[in-house]
Amino acid sequence: MFKNLLTTLFGLNVYFYGVFLVFCLFLFLFLFWRSIRKTSFSEERLVDALFVAGLVGLTFGRGLFFLLHPDYFAASALRFFLLFSFPGVSEFGFWTGFVLSFFVYSRRQKNKFRSLVELLALPIILVRFLFSLGEIALAPNLAQLILSLLLLVFLLAYFAFMRLAKKGRVQSTNVIYLVFGALISPFFIIDFFKPQRLYFFGQRILAVEQAFYGVVLLILLAVLIVNWLRGRKPNKKN
pTM for this one? Predict the structure, then answer.
């Protein structure tokens, strides 16, 4: 298990969590940039959009973390801006802000959102997997191990999916379902391991947040099945 505190610079503590977070962000940017070069999209515009989406996501994630942990920032409101010294970002908040930002960008630029998600697929799934390994290094536990294995399955599924796409068996833009599954399902699974849970309608299985994640996953699965069935229908002869 790694120590979270790495060193002290100019009187400020530098933590492994903060440094690893920045590393993952830069890796994400590199993978996304490499994907753009293989398309006709404008590298400059999409990289700028990625930076904006990252800032929006970081603001959303930090803001949600602030709302969920008010005692952590009670000593000084400036802690909100000192990410290295006082780390903490809600992953759900980050991805919510990130995806919403890219969705708005795609609408304004009249680009297909699915096409953008196709470029984001590998960076999202791979970085999420690496970040889960970083959390295991800090605090190894059964929940994080299961989460990492789940993300590894999604990563392998991505490579298998893209291989089928190259053979023309599936449409590459349908990778959007895999991406959203990789973003949402870990939150659904990890909630089973939380010590304090607010259960949905008094039952002792699903928590309130899990019910939301579960509904979204069912909708994604239903849409995927419908699209698959439509694709299997034979073309009508003129």
Answer: 0.73
